[in-house]
Amino acid sequence: MDPSYSAADDAFRAEVRAFVAAELPDDLRRRASADYHARRDDQARWAKILARQGWSVPHWPVVYGGTGWTGVQRLIFEKEMRLAHAPTMDRIGPELVAPVLYSFATEEMRQRILPGIRNGDVFWAQGFSEPGAGSDLSSLRTRAVREGDHYVVNGQKTWTTEGHHADMIFMLVRTNPDVKPQAGISAILIDLKSPGVTRRPIWTMDEGLTVNEFFFDDVRVPVGNLVGDEGAGWTYAKFLLTNERTTSADVPHTRRDIAQLRAIAAIEQRNGRPLIEDRRFRARLAQIEVDTLALEYAVLRVLTDESNHGGAVASVVKVRGSELRQRVAELASEALGDAGLAVRRDAEAEEAMSDDPWDPPVPEHGIGVSAKAMFRRATTIYGGANEIQRTLIAKTILEL
Questions:
Q1: Following DSSP, what letter does each residue of 123-148 receive, concatenated?
Q2: 321-375 residue pLDDT tens
Q3: Which residues are registered as beta bridge partners of 215?
Q4: Which of 15, 138, 207, 328 has the greatest number of beta carbons closer than 10 A?
Q5: CB 367 within 8 Å of CB 208
Q6: Does residue 285 sit in helix, strand or coil?
Q7: Closest of 303, 157, 175, 153 to residue 236, by C-alpha
Q8: Do 202 and 158 meet the contact criterion of CB atoms below 8 Å apart?
Q9: Which residues contact 378 (CB under 8 A, 6 or more apart)?
Q10: What is the distance between the alpha carbons of residues 80 and 6, in angstroms, rounded to a whole number?
Q11: Is 84 helix (H, G, I), strand (E, B) or coil?
Q12: Which of 315, 311, 314, 309 is nearest to 388 (CA)?
């Protein structure tokens, strides 16, 4: 792989930058600049703007609405979106659920489900983790028993990211308890408005509402919502998690975080001078930038499919990317000095907790910074804990 960007790539970057400058509404940009989790209505509005341009799902096959861009172009697009403070898009539907559907589902399901994801009309959650079944998904206990033309689902899912925004959930369920654990798992789509579905929010240490738990009590799901073949859910889950681990490298987000960190360091003072002039701080920042550049090229290797190690390389970039996101977020919070000790809630949390007002002394350039540093503690857990990823790397790449 040539690690440099071509003249065509530079022209594409200019095209994307011009589009965003012309089409991104100021109110969306202002809200996204604080870098909290985007509101559903902001995500939907921006998705529709991108859809009119044909850019809402650039990584999909062209036949289903994708752009036909190269992996390099997709990475450039994501970097420009983040640097321009565009709303972060719903990842679950477009990046995780949809690739499983257009790869394994029936054509009828693809035509029924994919347009709503592409146009930002239907939001999705991912129902994998359960109490006692996190990185070890094969031990999941949520059951789906077939009764005529329906499955009856009972169980619980937890740590369901953005579940409070979701209309539908892509679920792993156990359809056969009498075979080895991996062979008895199926994937099914459930409407979260179905009778018997209960959601409960999980408040996290960043004062935000991001994750949830769901309870399913005799929820009836049409057999037509089974994805692919019964008992093949483990295969689909591995496929999905490979995609999730690659995107969990989050190079565009890290680039955006580094730009924010530089801006903070230009404002904050240490010993009467801007922090950016401090030699020790600059050395730490430079190391993060070098490591991010190296990670970017590793992600490009995955996107251009040059590795023979498949999902194991996705594990490598997931480990490195998640740790880098923690490092840059922690350094940004540290750069704020005393203000980095305070966390200001995002708009959704303020609305939900209106009876408990909280207005800590955080400067405008520090809004969202410490909340992000706290939330980043989860990056080394979601998508498969990094301890598990290191085991996969040792077995698959190092052959230990």
A1: -EEEE--BTTBSS-GGG---EEEEET
A2: 899 999 999 999 999 988 887 776 666 666 666 666 666 677 878 878 888 888 8
A3: 156, 198
A4: 328
A5: no
A6: helix
A7: 175
A8: yes
A9: 204
A10: 17
A11: coil
A12: 315
Distance of CA 91 to the CA centre of its chain: 5
- Give the closest residue to 310 by CA, choosing from 241, 383, 391, 381: 241
∠ CA 269-377-348, rounded to 5°: 85
From 263, 290, 289, select the one nearest 276 (Cα to Cα). 263
Cβ 389 vs Cβ 319: under 8 Å: yes
Q: Which of 252, 254, 247 is nearest to 315 (CA)?
A: 247
Report how far residue 21's alpha carbon sits from residue 80's, in angstroms, rounded to the nearest whole number. 10
d(CA 57, CA 60): 6
Give SS3 for 54: coil
Q: Quote the pLDDT of residue 348.
A: 65
Tell me whether strands 124-127 and 168-174 are parallel, antiparallel or unpaired: parallel
Q: Which two tokens stand for residue 202?
A: 């999980």
Three-state secondary-structure class, residue 160: strand
Confidence of residue 124 (pLDDT cuts 50, 70, 90): very high
Cα–Cα nearest to 232, from 172, 191, 302: 172
In DSSP terms, 187 is beta-bridged to 172
Tokens of 78: 């994501």
Centroid of chain to Cα 236? 18
User: Looking only at Cα atoms, what is the longest distance across the chain?
Assistant: 74
Tokens of 237: 């889950």
What is the model's pLDDT at position 354? 60
Question: Of the given ranges (4-13, 217-226, 382-391), which has the lowest mean pLDDT?
Answer: 382-391
Q: How far apart are CA 45 and CA 158, in angstroms?
A: 28
Neighbours of 355 (CB within 10 A): 5
Query: Residues, the chain, total?
Result: 400
In this predicted structure, the answer to whether residue 160 has a pLDDT above a threshold of 50 is yes
CB 106 within 8 A of CB 335: no
Instruction: Count Cβ neighbours within 10 Å for each residue of 378-387 and write b for 16 or more, e otherwise.
Output: bbbbbbbbbe
The amino acid sitting at 106 is T
Nearest to 371 by CA among 380, 382, 360, 381: 360
